[in-house]
């Protein structure tokens, strides 16, 4: 999934990453259409080959993201799409044909940050707070060719500081195994140091010193997309489709999907408990005094279990409330003692000053 406001070069970067033209049929909306623009979801599928292995890659784009005047709910379409893919996978996983499940879950979200800001904006923080527990977020500084090397470094530091301050969980690179070769360890270290990736995208082929390169021509020279001195493009591509593709899928399965699955199971269990409680009340009302004789042993056991759960929940909540009350009372007593100590210290200080003045008079 690629997220970011219009004009940050998302489509260009995706085309550059996967050497294709996924958006050749897209029409650029005019100003009138953008006034009431809402975030939509566009899916593009392509086949790529990495080290002899053919992969089917689905790009989920979000045109209209952040374009409206009121961006308060701009994250909802993205969050709903991620949840829907989890829900579909959960349904398929619970069915009979588990061997042929099509995995459409979002394994990575490239979040594009504009280069002209001073760190993360309020809209960035809000969107990341809503999504960081659902998907692997990889922050990307767009159009890095508009910044100097020093500016890129400072912007990266500010973004990482904002991420830490607001406790946003971005994708964490796994630690290398001790038996990995030194070259891979060095590559992994360089990838970690690049976050957030400062990238440049271009599908234009230029000739530089007899070499054909993809880049952008400026009056002062050429920015080469795949030159590590000019951008982190190569490192981002390496991470996405080579070194960390499987880990992105594993984290999605083991962390994000398992969290969603646990919520679904909890909701199903709560719904079943509510239904049993409703049936019990209805049966008791309809049966009247003959209630105990009209239910089977299985139903009686279920009802007994519900009562035990309710009783246990009641005592657990009472214990929690008692503990909270004790903590509040303890905090109140500590505050009163602190205030009394402050008052005592103030009194001692005043009397000490009086005594010292008296000593000065005697000595004088």
TrEMBL record:
Gene Ontology CC: one annotated term: cytoplasm
Tree of life domain: Eukaryota
A Gene Ontology molecular function term of the record: GTP binding
GO terms (BP aspect): cell division
UniProt KW keywords: Cell cycle, Cell division, Cytoplasm, GTP-binding, Nucleotide-binding
SUPFAM superfamilies: P-loop containing nucleoside triphosphate hydrolases
Domain Septin-type G: 1-267
One of the Pfam families matching this protein, by short name: Septin
Family: Belongs to the TRAFAC class TrmE-Era-EngA-EngB-Septin-like GTPase superfamily. Septin GTPase family.
Name under which the protein is recorded: Septin
Organism of this sequence: Pogonomyrmex barbatus (red harvester ant)
Gene name of the encoded protein: LOC105428158
């Amino acid at each position: 999934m690629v997220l970011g406001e219009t004009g940050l070069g998302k489509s260009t970067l995706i085309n550059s990453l996967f050497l294709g033209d996924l958006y050749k049929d897209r029409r650029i909306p005019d100003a009138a259409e953008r006034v009431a623009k809402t975030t939509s979801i566009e899916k593009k599928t392509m086949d790529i080959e990495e080290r002899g292995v053919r992969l089917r890659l689905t790009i989920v784009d979000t045109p209209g993201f952040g374009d409206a005047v009121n961006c308060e709910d701009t994250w909802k379409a993205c969050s709903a799409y991620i949840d829907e893919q989890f829900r579909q996978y959960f349904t398929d996983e619970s069915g009979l044909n588990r061997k042929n499940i099509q995995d459409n879950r979002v394994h990575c979200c490239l979040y594009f940050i504009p280069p002209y800001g001073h760190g993360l904006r309020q809209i960035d923080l809000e969107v990341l707070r809503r999504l960081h527990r659902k998907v692997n977020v990889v922050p990307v500084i767009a159009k890095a060719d508009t910044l100097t090397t020093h500016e890129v470094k400072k912007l990266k530091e500010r973004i990482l500081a904002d991420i830490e301050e607001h406790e946003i969980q971005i994708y964490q690179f796994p630690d290398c195994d001790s038996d990995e070769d030194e070259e891979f360890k060095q590559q992994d270290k360089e990838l970690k140091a690049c976050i957030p990736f400062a990238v440049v995208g271009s599908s234009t082929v230029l000739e530089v010193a007899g070499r054909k390169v993809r880049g952008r021509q400026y009056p002062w020279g050429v920015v080469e997309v795949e030159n590590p001195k000019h951008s982190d493009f190569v490192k981002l591509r390496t991470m996405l489709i080579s070194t960390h593709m499987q880990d992105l899928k594993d984290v999605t399965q083991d962390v994000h999907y398992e969290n969603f699955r646990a919520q679904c199971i909890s909701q199903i269990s709560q719904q079943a408990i509510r239904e049993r409680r409703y049936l019990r009340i209805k049966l008791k009302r309809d049966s009247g005094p003959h209630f105990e004789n009209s239910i089977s042993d299985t139903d009686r056991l279920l009802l007994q279990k519900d009562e035990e759960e309710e009783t246990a929940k009641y005592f657990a909540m009472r214990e929690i409330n008692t503990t909270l009350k004790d903590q509040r009372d303890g905090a109140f007593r500590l505050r009163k003692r602190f205030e009394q100590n402050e008052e005592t210290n103030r009194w001692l200080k005043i009397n000490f000053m009086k005594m010292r003045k008296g000593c000065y008079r005697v000595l004088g």
